[in-house]
Amino acid sequence: IGIVIFRDHYKISDLERTLIDISVRPFYSGGVTQVLEAFENAKNRLDTDKLYNYYSKMNYTYPYHQVIGFYLEKAGYGEKKYQKFLQHDKKNFKFYLTYNILHKEFSDKWNLYYPKGL
């Protein structure tokens, strides 16, 4: 994908790849609230076209595009910014934002269960 950069012998990633990684595994970054906060904080720097291109190349089996699009919308990005995720194939699954959601709500738009109050 061409997203790992070597600087001074350290592997680093970029913002778009990091947001994909924490969307897929939110517990590694503190949980879904922290992931949403990361999307909010990235608003002025995030390239959503680059984010979508990375995601498409990763060819996930599970429909994480629903998760990423949901975060983009919840973080206040305009529809133009998350439209590609909304139109992505494989939206036939009802999916969960994270594991073990006790009190959940459902987004018809994203076909996604998420914690109540998020």
Task: Explain what the structure shows.
- The chain has 118 residues and is an alpha+beta fold.
- It has helices spanning 15-24, 32-41, 48-58, 64-74, 79-87, and strands at residues 5-7, 10-12, 95-96, 104-107, 112-115.
- The strands form 2 sheets. A 3-stranded mixed beta sheet has the order 3-5-4, with helices on one face. It has a two-stranded antiparallel ribbon with strand order 1-2.
- A hairpin with a 4-residue loop joins strand 4 and strand 5.
- Helix 1 crosses helix 4 (64-74) and helix 4 (64-74) runs antiparallel to helix 5 (79-87).
Beta-strand percent range: 5-15%
Shape: globular
Order of helices and strands: EEHHHHHEEE
Q: Give the tally of β-strands.
A: 5
Summarize the helices and strands and which ones pair or pack.
Layout: E1 5-7, E2 10-12, H1 15-24, H2 32-41, H3 48-58, H4 64-74, H5 79-87, E3 95-96, E4 104-107, E5 112-115
Parallel strand pairs: 3-5
Antiparallel strand pairs: 1-2, 4-5
